[in-house]
Specification:
By secondary structure, the protein is an alpha/beta fold. The protein contains 5 helices and 6 strands, in the order αβαββαββαβα. The protein has a 6-stranded mixed beta sheet, with helices on both faces. Pfam families: Cofilin_ADF.
Length: 150
């Protein structure tokens, strides 16, 4: 009887600490990582469905500036961005950034849901190389990206 209680307690803790992740999130991330099919992906938590879904796919030709236009000024999001850069030896490379976007103006409930679901969601996306937490655009500017790759 005691073990049954522990199992239920564990399941409830997991349910409270994260949303389900729609399969499409993993499929599209894998396409970004292996085929470079996308420059970025913006993910949104659908509270009614209790799951993370793909909100926007950025074409490979889209820029960092295009990407930032899809992060709402007053709502939280998760995003991944495939960042191209050159090493000091002028070798082209890329890094996959995970961004936890949580603007100060977003609802407290939303911030809490995104914060408590982040680690579980990140584990579903195998291949993230750099993580950024941002509450305003200056915390995830190109200068920040450049400083995190070297």
């Amino acid at each position: 009887m005691r073990n049954t209680f522990r199992v239920k307690e564990h399941v409830l803790a997991n349910a409270a600490s994260g949303m389900a992740v729609h399969d499409d999130c993993k499929v599209k991330f894998l396409e970004l990582k292996t085929k470079r099919s996308f420059r970025f992906i913006v993910f949104k938590i659908e509270e009614k469905q209790k799951q993370v879904i793909v909100e926007k796919l950025g074409e490979p030709t889209e820029s960092y500036e295009d990407f930032t236009t899809f992060l709402p000024a007053d709502e939280c999001r998760y995003a991944v961005f495939d960042f191209d850069y050159f090493t000091e030896e002028n070798v082209p490379k890329s890094r996959i950034f995970f961004i936890a976007w949580s603007p100060d103006t977003s609802r407290v409930r939303s911030k809490m849901i995104y914060a408590s679901s982040k680690d579980r969601f990140k584990r579903e996306l195998d291949g993230i190389q750099v993580e950024l937490q941002a509450t305003d655009p200056t915390e995830m500017g190109l200068d920040v990206f450049n400083s995190r790759v070297n």
